[in-house]
Amino acid sequence: MMAGKRVAKFQIKKCVEIVYGDDDRISPLPDDILVDIISLLSLKEAVCTCVLSSRWHNLWKHIYRLNFDPHVSLQKGTQQGSESCKEKREKYVKWVNSVLRKHKAAILKDFIIRLRLSRTFQKDVNRWIKFAIVRHVQRLELDLTTGDSSLINCSLPQELLTQNTSSEIDIKFLKILCLKSVDVTEEDIKFLLSNCPLLEELVVDRSLKLLNVEVCGGPSLVLKHLELTRCYNLKSVKVSAPNLTLLSIHGCQSYLKSVKITAPNLTSLTLQKVESLFLENVPRLVEVSICRVYNEVSTTVALSSFACCDFQLEILTLEMKSFEETFLPTILQLPKLKKLVVFVIGDESFNFRNSYASDTGLTNLMKAAPNLREFVLNMQYSDASMFNFIRYDNIQRFSHRHHLKVQSFIHQQLKVFKFCGYCGVPNQVEVLKYVIEKCVALEKVIIEARYDKLYSTEESIKEQVVKRLKEQVPQQIELVIL
């Protein structure tokens, strides 16, 4: 018995020595492996490794991923009142320059700057871009968004946008380029696409100089991902890209005059406020998002443009100002649609007297998508409308005065219905009731209540709404209230 205990103690001690022994298993690793490990850390953590030993003192200088993102630290310092945000930003710029002076890696995979900078720091930005390009960077991301429309954006250095065989700047290694609040022109984009043969992803955000963009090329154009967002002066876009899989154009202040797309490998498309849309050769398009279609004309134009590919769509997102019958034209047939997301934005549809809750619009959608499995309805209203209608006495007063007309229609496939922005007003109650009655295969109802954020103290109101929900949703259907 005692011998058994001694053997057990010996085994435990041996295991402890193996796991917690004095052997340093990291130091024997070659420097290349250590640099790979350090490159996985944040920049701040990587720099801190210099204090571990004399051998580690310079290892961080060879990491191949540089990510400068001081947003949290800047915000924390400002909240504490120790320094102004401007002072901390200027200090951080100096620190970036110091790090780059010490950095010794010959090759960079990622170079990321997320810092609120205007044209005042153009020289620093030029220096950073050149530093990354000279090291054959593969991913270059500059997010200089200031949030102040009165400030002038930085731009790309002219040296980057000229062909000079004697220059050490060579952009041919770029695979991902993301420019936010960096002004570029359509000529700049053409130059980048022509001189970056490996470029697969291009994101341009808040560029005020973009007017008419053309992204066109043959098989040599390997671009797969293109985003043009919040380019407020954009007028038209023409895309002919054989390898493009994702295209997103949104955030413009005015309607785009023309969008022409030829992309045989395109699978996902997001558009906003388009007067004229032309689609050609998009046999793989399965996901479409149409944003801010705030009038009947724009809705009809947008939806009718997809008539060439409606039979293949699997995910459709619509953002509208009302939910009336006229906003849901019966021009599409969506036999493969599996997920539908509808955003209703604006106060017109909040009033119980409006006709958005007439079942015709919903029925048209359901009939067009007989294999729909998930339906997400997101209703967003102003605080004023919420204040006027969220009171339980209003809910009680109007809840029985407006009902959907019943049509002889049953949906056989819908499994999940998610209602975002729900606060229990009459139209919402009727829509929920309609979906429950018409969708006989429904398994789950998810309610995301908006009022919780605005009226968290009015427990009685929430209790009444929750009680009504539980009464309205049958027990065999799972009810989730977020």
Structural commentary:
With 482 residues, this protein is α/β, with parallel strands linked by helices. It is built from 14 helices and 21 strands. It has helices at 2-20, 31-38, 43-48, 71-80, 85-102, 122-134, 186-195, 296-305, 359-368, 383-389, 392-398, 426-438, 451-454, 459-472; strands at 65-68, 110-114, 139-143, 154-155, 176-180, 182-183, 201-205, 212-216, 225-229, 236-240, 246-250, 258-262, 268-272, 277-280, 287-293, 315-320, 339-345, 374-380, 416-422, 444-449, 478-481. The strands form three sheets. The protein has a 15-stranded parallel beta sheet with strand order 1-2-3-5-7-9-11-13-15-16-17-18-19-20-21. Helix 12 (426-438) links the parallel strand 19 and strand 20. The termini are far apart.
Which strands sit side by side, in order, in the main sheet?
1-2-3-5-7-9-11-13-15-16-17-18-19-20-21
Largest beta-sheet details: 15 strands, parallel
The quaternary organization reads as single chain
User: End-to-end span in angstroms?
Assistant: 59 Å
Q: What spatial form do the alpha-carbon principal axes imply?
A: globular
Gyration radius, rounded: 29 Å
What is the overall number of helices? 14
pLDDT < 50 stretches: 1-21, 76-82, 348-358, 389-404, 452-457
Average pLDDT, rounded to a whole number, is 79
Tally of strands = 21
Instruction: Report the β-strand fraction as a percent range.
Output: 15-25%
Helix fraction, binned, reads: 25-40%
Summing up helix and strand content along with how strands pair, one would put the structural category as alpha/beta
